[in-house]
Amino acid sequence: MACQVLPIKMLRRAFGKVINSTFSTLLPDAAPVPEGLVTSLLHRFSSDEGYRLYDDVLPFFKQLHDWRKTSPATRSDSYQLQVGIISNSDDRIPTILDELGLRLNGRRYGSDLVQSTTHSDIDWVVMSYDVGIEKPDHGIFDAAKNMSALSAEGENVYLHVGDSIEEDYHGALKAGWQGVLLDRESKFKDDIPKAARVENLTDLLPRLMESKKS
Length: 214
Known about the structure:
By secondary structure, the protein is mainly alpha-helical. It has 8 helices and 5 strands; from the N terminus they run αααβαβααβαββα. The chain has helices spanning 8-24, 37-44, 57-69, 93-99, 128-131, 138-148, 165-174, 204-213, and strands spanning 84-87, 124-127, 159-162, 178-182, 197-198. The strands form 2 sheets. Strands 3-4-5 form a 3-stranded parallel sheet, with helices on one face. The chain has a two-stranded parallel sheet with strand order 1-2. β3 (159-162), α7 and β4 (178-182) form a beta-alpha-beta unit. α1 (8-24) crosses α2.
């Protein structure tokens, strides 16, 4: 699914129009929207003020961090793991994730910036704002695969985890990836195979390790 990529000033202006049109219907006698409201809301939803992490997110990244610290020589598997974000969103995402306590290394689709992945929770970010295509279109998954820059040698596994059955789960499968549905409210337990569904992010890594052994 293609999306229109707007310059950042136009994007802010578009958000401003949405905010004005929303609140103007709630004010009596066509009174103007209070000055500063647009700026205040844009700031709120461009930072961690407007969001909160689910309780399983930081423990999950702690799991990943601890696993990555383990020397490959002491592990029974041969995983070389990268973690990325694929999001139908604009360029606020890296700042919001950073303010919520997740460590990004700075790699972003469309940017030439390359930094060390040491001590990072997230190795790269791919946003529809930069790609011009949204999930479930396979193009954004292809962009993410290119960002991973994995060696062509051996067997690479591309796995996408998300909470939208269409955009994330089916989108990943159609793009040739493995898909896991994050089903925190158990809405799809009768529709998705057990092996492709988790209700808590902290269940994901142990399951991947088990599948690697089998």
